[in-house]
Amino acid sequence: MTPPLSEQPPDWTEPGAHPVVPGVHRIPLPVPVPGLHAVNVYVIDDPSGPVVVDSGWAFPDARAALDSALGLLGLTAGDVSQFLVTHAHIDHYSQALKLREAFGTRVRIGRGEEPSIKAFNVADRSRRQIELLRRCGAPDLAAEIAALDRGGDRSIADPLPDAWLDDGERVALTARDLDVLATPGHTRGHVVLRDAAAGLLFAGDHVLPHISPSIGLEPEPEASPLRSYLDSLRLVRDLPDTLLLPAHGGVTGSVHTRVDELLAHHEARLDAAAAQVRAGNTTALEVARAMPWTRRRRALDDLDPFSRMLAVLEIGAHLDVLTEQRILDASESAGVRTYAVRA
Asked: Which residues, 6+ apart, have CB-to-CB distance to 94 below 8 Å?
């Protein structure tokens, strides 16, 4: 059985420090991206100093919201003993690095993020995604993204953490233990933190209650991020159920329920993508244009460029998994990958 959950506000983005279970509070912080709404950070009480899971985006509104919420708990940002970060996306990692510059706070993140973190200051932000869009048969969209890209965030002096979090490691706090589980897919080094005794999963972006996370959106993605993501979902599904403490959305009572929904969603998308190849669409762009997007079932070309990029790359990842499953065959010509139903 999962533990009882403290009452949560109807709007999960409501500012404040919301109790989850005794000793754990959820703080939603604003993000400067329309549609993303907010990101949750979680404050864990500990006699050696509060531990915070994820940190928010390093911009003034997020820092002000964090300071205000910590103040409700009788704390300041300088009191935080360490940040445990689920992955290296800017809305999770960057504020931890800024607070380290100010207070010397210890920052840890999954070891698998090292290649992408080291690429922060040496590669354009979307370099690899632009290459993949061309492979997906979407050169015009690649050009749009290249025009929007202004490179990585160079305002952080040192993007490396103080120490890595390793798969299978147990972070021993004074009052609780957190097991580190590598859950690659959303990013190659994504980790979740599991408090088995208290029945909690600090899930980052691995399991989200209302949306399916993007796959492999990072400077150095792995070869088959969707395959890794599905394997990582099954990994947490095989463990005893816990409360779901996500980075985006409200806390919910069951990790298992949401994982089952996500696995079913991707199975349906795999079937739909294969059907579109059978119908004669041969590139990821063609398949993506033939499929509806968002809950409003919008056409691909009605989305903004960033959302179109995510959609096309997601379909490319699904088509690659179908190729690995020997349902489709893939070939490349002039840098464009095409797909056909396996004979």
From this structure: 55, 56, 57, 58, 153, 156
Q: Is 74 exposed, middle or buried (0-12, 13-18, 19+ CB in 10 A)?
A: exposed
Residue 80 in contact with residue 103, Cβ under 8 Å?
A: yes
Do 298 and 337 lie in one domain? The reply is yes
Cα(84)–Cα(164) distance, rounded to whole angstroms?
Answer: 10
Asked if residues 73 and 82 have their Cβ atoms less than 8 Å apart, the reply is: no
Q: Distance (Å, rounded) from C-alpha 80 to C-alpha 57?
A: 17
Which residue type, as a one-letter code, is found at position 13?
Answer: T
pLDDT tens by residue, 141-174:
999 998 876 544 455 667 999 999 999 999 999 9
DSSP state of 321: H
Residues 86 and 188 in one domain: yes
Q: What is the CA radius of gyration of the chain?
A: 20
Could you give the dihedral angle defined by the CA atoms of residues 57, 62, 64 and 65, in that order, rounded to the nearest 10 degrees? -130
> Do 143 and 241 lie in a common domain?
no
**122: pLDDT confidence band, cut at 50, 70 and 90?**
very low
| CA distance to 26, 142, 263, 330, per residue, from 254 (Å) | 17, 39, 15, 38
* Residues spanned by the domain of 112: 18-120+156-253
3-class DSSP string for 134-182: HHCCCHHHHHHHHHHCCCCCCCCCCCCCCEEECCCCEEECCCCEEEEEE
CA end-to-end span of the chain, whole Å? 48
Per-residue model confidence as pLDDT tens digits over 189-237? 999 999 999 999 999 999 999 999 999 889 899 999 999 999 999 999 9
How far is it, in rounded angstroms, from Cα 221 to Cα 224?
A: 8
Distance CA 92, CA 248 (A): 11
Judge whether 236 lies within some domain: yes
Residue type, 32: P
- The structure's pTM equals 0.94
Query: Does residue 170 fall inside a structural domain?
Result: yes
Q: How far is CA 55 from CA 42, 105, 266, in A?
A: 8, 12, 29
